[in-house]
Amino acid sequence: MSDHASHSSGAGHVSPISLYITIFAALMVLTAVTVGAAFVDLGQFNFSVAMLIAGFKASLVVWYFMHVKYQSHLTKLTLATGMFFLAILLGMMLIDYTSKDFTAMPKGTDPTSEMGAPAAH
Amino acid sequence: MSSTVANADHGHAHAHAHHPALQHHFDTMAQQKEAAVIGMWVFLLTEILFFGGLFVAYMIYRIWYFDAFAEASRSLSLFWGGLNTAVLIGSSLTMAMAVRGAQTNKRKATVNWLILTMILGAVFLGVKVIEYADKFEHHHVPGPSFVWAAEHEAPAAGAAPAEHRQLSLTPEQLQQTTQLYFSLYFTMTGLHALHMIIGIGIMLVITWMAHKGRFDEQYFTPVEMAGLYWHFVDIVWIFLFPLLYLVERHT
Amino acid sequence: MTIFGIPIFPEQASTFAKDVDALYFFILATCAFFAIGVSVAVVWLGIKYHKTHDGQIGARIEGNLPLELLWSVIPTIIAMFMFGWGASVYYHLRRPPDEALHLYAVGKQWMWKFQHLEGQREINELHIPAGRPVKITISSEDVLHSLYFPAFRTKMDAIPGRYTELWFEAKDPGVYHIFCTEYCGTNHAGMIGNVTVLEPAAYQAWLQGGGMEGTLAQRGAKLFNDLACQTCHLDTGTGRGPSLKDLMGRTETMADGSTVVVDEAYLRESILNSQAKIVKGFQPLMPTFQGLVSEENLVALIEHVKSMSPNATTVAAPTPAAPESGAATAGKPAEKK
Amino acid sequence: MLDKLKMPERHYLNNGHGLKSWLLTKDHKRIAIMYLISISVMFLLGGLFAMGIRLELATPQGDFVQADTYNKFFTMHGVIMVFFFLIPSIPAVLGNFMIPPMIGAKDLAFPRINLLSLYIYWIGGIFTLAAMVTGGVDTGWTFYTPYSASASNTHIIPTALGIFIAGFSSILTGLNFIVTIHRMRAPGMGWFRLPLFVWAHYATSLVQVLGTPVIAITIVMLGVERAFGFGIFDPARGGDPVLFQHLFWFYSHPAVYIMILPALGVMSELVSTFSKKMIFGYSFVAFSSLAIAVFGFIVWAHHMFVAGISTYAAMVFSFLSFSVAIPSAVKVFNWTATLYKGAISFETPMLYAYGFMGLFLIGGLTGLFLATLGMDIHLHDTYFVVAHFHYIMVGGAIMGYMGGLHYWWPKMTGRMYSEFFSRIAAILVFVGFNLTFFPQFVVGYLGMPRRYHSYPDEMQLLNVMSSAGASVLGLGYLLPVIYLLWSLKKGAVAGPNPYGASTLEWQTQSPPLTENFLEVPEVTGEPYEYEHVVAKESHLV
Questions:
Q1: What is the CATH T-level fold of the domain B50-245, as seen in this structure?
Q2: Which other chains touch chain D, taking contact as 3+ CB pairs less than 8 Å apart?
Q3: pTM (2 decimals)?
Q4: Where are the domains of chain B?
Q5: What ipTM goes with this model?
Q6: What is the DSSP string of C101-139?
Q7: Segment D110-143, tens digit of pLDDT
Q8: Nearest chain C Cα distance for residue B158, angstroms
């Protein structure tokens, strides 16, 4: 069994309370930021910004609240596997749905505007 | 049953007296705990793909019917949604504190933090009930009685002139495609709420176990597993909030 | 083709049937080579190295890297070749020639309804001329169906709410099967029919025989009046709606500044979801006809509008993905502002 | 020698008696036995429906049953065989029983979850069977929308619920295997000392864990559409019925690998054991399992080439589909090479292995026809497809299952079955199978569509051949029930290692102790080393 990494016996890594408070504060601030960003017209980037912030918040929760930072490589690998296959599910679905107009896209329209971001008005 | 051979393999301290929570087919508490952690993460992996299927449907229809999604999203209350996000993040904090209490073998702290987490979870569900009731009132529940009334305006988007938005969508189309949005809204938030109810149920059991003193710093796996699950439910909401409430708020 | 009275091969009744069959025989030969090769090897090894006494064990051979690479790379190359050939045949199958005769098919539980531009309507029967490409635009009134002509080696699903299309060119006169291959309920197996391929002259005669209701476009013109479309869509361009004269294939500018090339999918969308795309300079006044016009009448209306554009050769996007294009646009009325 | 072998005094079967000792057991072996009984019942049911289908198709007119009844027959045949037989077959029975002893563990990592997965499987089965008795379901096992969402008025929700529930059983089994293989290996049992059966199950578990939740959520979406009138796939409300197909096949294509990968693992064991030779190219065979599992997730739209997907998407998915062919080919070539200079004997499991090779070859190679775009347009949804996937699922997965069951039967029960009858059964299955399904390739190329209750007259002869073959096949499957049950009482005592196999599960007594081994074994050598195996050949040669 060569693949188990730095786990400590017993209680595992005990994070200081101050860290938890900091993460909590960061999550609250980011929530406010994501609401604020939604009211600013960023054109195609509203969606990307919202997802980036959500992704960052999720990473904070995973990394600190869920202790992945202190877990074995195997745990990290499991998480990465999940992300990878989620990306396959979402990404490969788009192959069909964004190429419906692949060769017949009327000129002057931007195919990338279909990628989820609202078309600029 | 010889565990000495296996011990040599693990190469770390082995409790000489077997812990009462050690199951017969494991050699050490560490092996047992690691198995549980990996098992939980593999379970969360399936949960990621479970919600992933919903996100696919959401993504396709959001691309197709962006305006309807934006319009329907504006009818959701940002106040309740934002409040719930804060409540759920707060409950993640209290959950992390509960696990910390178990790690440091503070029974009372663990129990209290767990109870606080459950209360916050219940608050979230209560707010969800208020929101759902509002949807019923406005006939925003998909099905035969679904009505998308043009005069309904979300308070936050009141500034936008109505005719501006009506330029691109007829009432018939809104009726049709906002319904799709609400189908997804109810499926997504409904499944999320179901996960929370299950989570609260699990926590009830674990709080009782903690109260009875079943855990110590060697063995608190159930608390940790419940924590992982609860944080995952929180993460799902972290994505659902912008996807459902914040489709397009700036017009 | 039959062997001992067993039919083993369908007629090659379309121009590309032989292409598909050539591909079939190539894959068949490749597969037979590997299947027979491995089977013979396995049986021969089984006999040659049969265990002769108790306690005998095999030689210690762990593997052989060059061999592994060889039998990974060679199948890869063959597979890539197969893909390329298959893709080129597919591209041909999905690309109707411009001069193709245009028909409509509507699937409904449990029948195929065909409409000719000249006005003939048939159920579970289809008459087409030999030696001329035929393009069929397919839709469905209820659930999924799939229009399949085994003798022509082509099929396409009928999807409610979308147009799909297929084409073929029948070679010889004869009668061939039409099947529905997408399971559609109780009488799925009864959703079959015959396609009768006629000599061009016989086809013309057949066309004369039917058509009591006039051509499809004429029927559309009548609907155009019945539904009062002509009260707004004046040919002069001074009506409340845009003129539909010479519309097909034109690039129209919408109220939001975007442009749309007028094709069948656009017309379909404009009738069913009339306010999805508003031409610049007009008010969104037109009522929606969703649920008021059947699929059959819809194609008649579209044909009528097309007949008002005598100079437009074909739909605006003569590309292989045109069916998908139509499908996608029809399915997402509200995308652009 | 035969007389000297005695059944061990203490083993998992006599460690506790009575119903309660079974229903509340945490022993993976007892759970496996209960799975074996459950899936056998399901197999019988599914088989009866298959017989109904073949009887109907013996004549072209559709005169044996009504069209509606026929539609329910093939739907229930598909649902039962796919979700309640094939998916749990090898993993839940043979994997469940053999993985812990193969890696030198006392049990799976989560014995209670293992038992839970069995109960979940039962609950799912009850829902589906209840739907069946109260009138059945007629959508085909694919549940395509909008037919399933609105047009059909049969019992779709209970059936779908049953599949949804059974899915969790599959997920929990996979989860248990993954953690067990990672964390429960005996000292010295490194990844490259694992038997290939374990590798195959590791790959299978990945697919179960990653794919099954997607079908679960798809069923939820279908369910809310049907039950509450939500319109997620409804074209009348702007939904896309093709999206259902995308989501459905995202799981259901990889699900094929849930069925076939464990059979490939069984094959590796059989080929090695019965040629007394280590597997040629061990690491290639091991990694090809993982490759098949991963590639399986990126090819799903090849089920949808005529479903209205874009030309571009069709090209991409066709291209990717060929990627699965390569690791499959690598496996077949490596097994062939393993036979070279072996010491080959043809006990019943090896007969199944040989049969598997032939049928899997045909099944896999005909997959190339369907992955090729220009070809698939003609073949899609015809009997060619039916024949192809039966060659994989019956010719592959069930041959592997039967081979594995015969191979490990002496380990599971401690007794040998009749070698004579089992060989006859193996030959009957092989012959009957080919007679049933080979004509379907021909009739498929002729253009006979799937799920047809009646068909044109000229296709009758081929269909009659197929129906005749089905009866032979049915006989071949019934025969083992008789001699295997017979062996429980009257079979010769097998001894710990009747085939002289090399893997760890044969190093303990048959049937094993509840804790599998008296002492945790320490693994020192490579897998499949026959030099050190103490062969107890017994009466077999």
A1: Four Helix Bundle (Hemerythrin (Met), subunit A) (1.20.120)
A2: A, B, C
A3: 0.86
A4: 50-245
A5: 0.86
A6: EEEEEEEETTEEEEEETTS-EEESEEEEETTSEEEEEEE
A7: 999 999 999 999 999 999 999 999 988 999 999 9
A8: 20
